[in-house]
Design a protein that fits this description.
Layout: H1 3-36, H2 40-61, H3 68-93, H4 100-126, H5 132-185, H6 193-212, H7 214-225, E1 230-235, E2 240-246, E3 249-254, E4 257-261, H8 265-277, E5 285-290, H9 295-300, E6 308-312, H10 316-324, H11 326-332, E7 341-344, H12 348-354, E8 359-365, H13 372-375, H14 380-388, E9 390-399, H15 407-419, E10 423-431, E11 435-443, H16 464-467, H17 489-502
Parallel strand pairs: 5-6, 5-8, 6-7, 8-9
Antiparallel strand pairs: 1-2, 2-3, 3-4, 9-11, 10-11
Length: 503
């Protein structure tokens, strides 16, 4: 093989390992956000730890005095094995270990250290084949282009098409492939090449098995993580959807967080919809933001005066599942198939910006503000867009997490709504699956105090609704800042309070 061809193949190796290295970093950051709560803190600490570990790897490379080619091949195999299995391993052990963060950062450190060894070793392998100026320029060019490719592939193709575990196994195989290609090219510089080749092919086979068995591995991990049997699990570009069932109790989890239990969800959804809507006179249009399970829409459809309901939910897999699966349609009364309902799959923040319609009643049934992408849906900027979509005399209700567990978070939402010009009526109730849960009814002017509930409600009536507005001293108002797009104080309050409660 000519030196020119060898140089090209080795530089392509730089491109491949740079792509793999960033993929592992993104997998770790995304997993931390899925399992521990997506936030700037999670991504910053994972990336910072990873880069620090790469620095350790670069430093350690200076202590390798001989057999650089053999060491490089071994490092590539180790990166492929540890990095390739990292996502599956973290999913499998999430529900099994007490100190998951220790495991996560230990794995990030190991992978980062190995990745930090790669480029310095490859530079030394190439130093006799390229002039120093050309060597540095070309190696770092291929390195940065590989990083760009990884940053585009990860959100656009890998996560939506393959998921995290399969993506890990795939790029682990790429690292092992680089090791085997280098061994083939520079065989004469490697002691015991047959043993290394055998180990490489064995690793490649193992990663291929892992790639093929990813769904079964995740299903097994979820069976151990959830108390009830898992009957459905799917990773979408936006979240991990899991359904469990035990006897007559069906539960929905998004990214591991319980969204509802079929035994008592009626309490939550009746409290979400009716305390505000039952006080409006002949409402004709409604807007639901979030709530892709169709349960809030089910409650809205109990009002004959409502001619049209628009549901805006980000995840098409979610609305499709709850519109087509028979068991789920029985829970939401096939609400998403009603001719009075239009389903739009779009980000609510973006959709409201382009919306020109106005509505009589608006429902925000978003997940809790555990990260900044959701936290933006609880900001003054978002509520300004909501105001523009409200008719005179209309009302808007927001689910606001637990005022007992996350007291500051709850009253932060209230402060944010008031800072946005709304008249607010906070209220709460007990939902057995969740404990105390809170909502805030917001309007542009005070609402009438008379209620006209539709027939067939299981929980609310004119007597019980009055109790919802009373807050005992341990859940009462506290001094908090409003949540603005540029500070996202709500996410900080939420992480602080729920982390303290969970741990």
């Amino acid at each position: 093989m000519t030196d020119r061809r060898l140089k090209i193949l080795l530089l392509l190796s730089v491109f491949a390992i740079a792509t793999c290295g960033l993929i592992y970093e993104l997998i770790a950051g995304t997993l931390a956000s899925y399992l521990l709560g997506d936030s700037v803190t999670q991504f910053s600490t994972v990336i910072g730890t990873y880069l620090f570990a790469m620095g350790i790897g670069s430093y350690l490379s200076g202590h390798i005095r001989r057999n650089e080619v053999a060491v490089f091949i071994q490092v590539e195999m180790l990166v492929g094995m540890v990095g390739g299995c990292s996502a599956a391993l973290l999913f499998l052990l999430f529900g099994q270990v007490d100190s998951f963060r220790v495991l996560l950062y230990a794995l990030v450190t190991v992978v980062g250290t190995l990745v930090g060894l790669e480029i310095p070793l490859l530079l030394r392998i190439l130093k006799d084949r390229l002039e120093f100026r050309e060597l540095v320029a070309q190696v770092f060019t291929f390195d940065y282009v590989g990083a760009l490719l990884a940053s585009l592939l990860f959100p656009l193709i890998l996560v939506p098409r393959l998921g995290l575990a399969r993506s890990g196994f795939l790029f682990g195989a790429v690292n092992v492939g680089v090791a085997l290609a280098t061994l083939h090219l520079l065989r004469e510089h490697v002691p015991r090449p047959r043993a290394l080749a055998g180990a490489g092919w064995l690793l490649l086979a193992g990663l291929a098995v892992g790639f093929g068995a990813s769904d079964r591995l995740l299903a097994w991990s979820e069976k151990s993580a959830y108390v009830d049997p898992v009957i459905f699990a799917r990773t979408t570009p936006y979240q991990r959807i899991v359904l469990t069932r035990e006897a007559n109790d069906l539960r929905l989890y998004l990214n591991g967080n319980l969204q509802f239990s079929s035994r008592d969800e009626y309490r939550y959804h009746e409290a979400l919809v009716h305390p505000g809507l039952a006080r409006l006179r002949a409402p004709r249009t409604a807007l639901v933001l979030g709530g892709g399970d169709g349960l809030a829409v089910r409650e809205l459809l109990k009002y004959p005066s409502l001619e049209h309901i628009t549901l805006v939910d980000l995840d098409p897999a979610m609305t499709r599942l709850f519109a087509t699966q028979e068991l789920l349609r029985r829970i939401n009364d096939s609400s998403l198939l009603s001719p009075r309902v239009t389903v739009i799959n779009e980000d609510a923040f973006t959709w409201l910006k382009g919306n020109t319609n106005q509505f009589d009643y608006l429902v925000a049934d978003f997940p809790d503000p555990s990260n900044f992408s959701i936290g933006k849906l609880y900001t003054t900027a978002f509520y300004a867009r909501v105001r523009a979509a409200m008719r005179p005399g209309s009302a808007f209700v927001v689910q606001c997490t637990s005022p007992w567990v996350a007291r500051k978070s709850f009253w932060c939402v209230d402060a944010t709504l008031r800072a946005s010009g709304f008249v607010t009526e906070p209220y709460h109730l007990y939902v057995p699956s969740f404990g105390e849960w809170g909502f805030i009814l917001a309007s542009l002017a005070p609402l009438p105090q008379s209620y006209h509930f539709p027939p067939g409600l299981k929980f609310l009536d004119e007597a019980s609704v009055q109790d919802l507005y009373h807050f005992p001293p341990d859940m009462g108002p506290v001094m908090v800042e409003a949540n603005h797009l540029n500070n996202q104080m709500l996410v900080r309050y939420f992480e602080e309070e729920w982390a303290h409660y969970v741990h």
